[in-house]
Amino acid sequence: MKTVVWETLSDSQKEAVLERPAISDGAAIGDAVNDVINLVRKDGDAALKALTMQFDNVEPESVAVTTAEVDAAVARLGQGIKDALQQAYNNITCFHRAQKPQPVRVETMPGVTCELITRPIERVGLYIPGGSAPLPSTVLMLGVPSQIAGCQKVVLCSPPPIADEILYVARLCGITEIYNVGGAQAIAAMAYGTESVAKVDKIFGPGNAYVTEAKQQVSNDHKGAAIDMPAGPSEVLVIADTYANPDFIAADLLSQAEHGPDSQVVLLTPCMAMAEKVASAVSEQLTVLSRAEIAKQALGSSVIIIAEDLEECVEISNRYGPEHLIVQTEFPSELLPLLDNAGSIFLGAWSPESVGDYASGTNHVLPTYGYTRTYSSLGLADFSKRMTVQKLTPEGLERLAPTVETMADAEGLDAHRNAVTVRVKALQAAKEAREEA
Amino acid sequence: MKTVVWETLSDSQKEAVLERPAISDGAAIGDAVNDVINLVRKDGDAALKALTMQFDNVEPESVAVTTAEVDAAVARLGQGIKDALQQAYNNITCFHRAQKPQPVRVETMPGVTCELITRPIERVGLYIPGGSAPLPSTVLMLGVPSQIAGCQKVVLCSPPPIADEILYVARLCGITEIYNVGGAQAIAAMAYGTESVAKVDKIFGPGNAYVTEAKQQVSNDHKGAAIDMPAGPSEVLVIADTYANPDFIAADLLSQAEHGPDSQVVLLTPCMAMAEKVASAVSEQLTVLSRAEIAKQALGSSVIIIAEDLEECVEISNRYGPEHLIVQTEFPSELLPLLDNAGSIFLGAWSPESVGDYASGTNHVLPTYGYTRTYSSLGLADFSKRMTVQKLTPEGLERLAPTVETMADAEGLDAHRNAVTVRVKALQAAKEAREEA
Fold it and tell me: Where are the annotated coiled coils located (chains A, B) (predicted)?
């Protein structure tokens, strides 16, 4: 990891240090993904089977995973991992249940009542990547909020063979529609539907460049599906003072670096000695990791920044906007009110990123690549939508009528005005009729 | 308006009746907008001035509107419209303030605390269209929540000359950065910044096909800006039973139809006599409207659907997912729990759409074109973002450690496991040291 001293940098050097590497998504991926989407829309299940053979080199008996297959997976799985997944499920459920919104209902004027109500998104699709190891934790992060939100249809796609752990968590989350399909073809299947795979309204979950591109493409088509958020490589930023434990920090940096060669790792500290201790602890811990080669590549583009003081660390962090932000200082909670633009924040020495990745209760699907400025940590809200409701009494309408009529006049919209006037006249006529009687 | 009887339709006819007209956004618009964006990125203010001359045929003295110009606009404006705008501002403020989220903080396990915190989006851009009449109501709908959320920088762009009403509302909402620029060039300026116009993180507001395309393009570029929601033509759907007043319904349908020739208008009723009365009231009211020609075109592609009963009306409405949903039935609140997929709902005879368009307190920026299935009515949440926070005590970490270690093993992520293990070992070592002492 290279070390830079912030105050010695020019503005453009500062900009360059915090710059993320470009994602090389080029036109080639776009065209390839477009072809896959068109094929799935045209040939449905047949396309899914052919593409699965081509990309995953397996031919599942059917696109859908059967209940018997899930039963068998559950039976095969050891009790240790079952207990761990159950504990994580419990914690994630606890935190996401606490996110249920309070109903909003106010009388803005006497007789004018406005409400904000929430409804689950009816049909959601969860994408779980395959790859070197199964990711049951991602099933928890997507499955638990879909279950709490009350989505009626929850579809899960993952490249075959689907690991027992994934099927076990799917069952914990009440997901019964599971399909042996991965990659861009899975996104296409969920966005448009096939004979086997139900069309959904919104697609969630991480994936490689092809999956990301497919999500982008289907979300730009109004007959496709909405998506959770734009994606980018995973990142961690650690703010540390002299009170931090360099071994802990090194372990945190490495746990991010092992995600992939494009992972971003940043350490911010006002203490040069701490920077040196962390760098040496990283080198030491690296030697025993099974994914050392991946971590080494990630560390190549990572950086330690020496700042003036903790305040400047906070400023730089807010400017970078990391996905994961770990604060290892003497009084971490004191910095919290100043922290902005982060996906998830880990306070203090005993809160490593991996607890949030798995089991503290927070969601590990987070905005990255600078999207923390505008996007939120995935949560219950992403599986529902908010609608407004208004109900006026006759008196409420009479009270509000002059305002609406004057504004409609100003905007030159006669019919908008008339929708109020016709009602006020009816009320006045009724009143006069009563008075005459 | 054509009338169809739902039960006589085949499945594909039903689909066709509820189909929105295709938006002809073709490649031509895409290329033109892309050119404008590139020009603004290259030439900044100079490009804005040239494009404003080209498209709006005016040459403002400066890109920025001065405080003196706003002062003059405020002085010119009549008291009647000021009072109306102030009343609308008060009601919209009341309802959006009520949307402030409750803090979420739970202990998912003893010693494991998780929080959901909210931060304003730092820099937002508001786009206010020009055209035949000024739209101060849209400034209210975007300006009020940005003010309540506490966004630090709020930029407003609108094609010159900017109406006094718009400048007045901008001042009510505390907006001081106002620019004489409209169209795709305004979106480009806010997404990337120019010498005069500050770059923002997220852009809000309606617009024509060019503005919509520009928003889409900048939101697909991670150096651009996020946007509020995808756009489509405005829509209303009315559910009415025999107790409804056909004159009121006709006025509501027309207030939607006058928006534009592509506006969508649907009436759902189980009562054929009501359908006929509404159709005849529409013809009658149409004759006196200043925007009758626009309304007539919109009505050409609109439809009255005769359903079996109110339950079927609800089903069809949920399937269509209207932007505005007006319920004029004997007991409108009883239908509310069944209603899904709508932007804003207007309950009962005294709640015309125009009260929500202007002043009841609800927001008039709503998902349309079927996006109600997944997108929310614009609200306070769109001007902020949610971050999660976790803090573990040493005991909390020890309690959670076996879960995280087991899951990290299952996912083959050594370093994730190690970030926990290194801490647990340190705690054990400290405990042993204490015991020895």
Answer: none
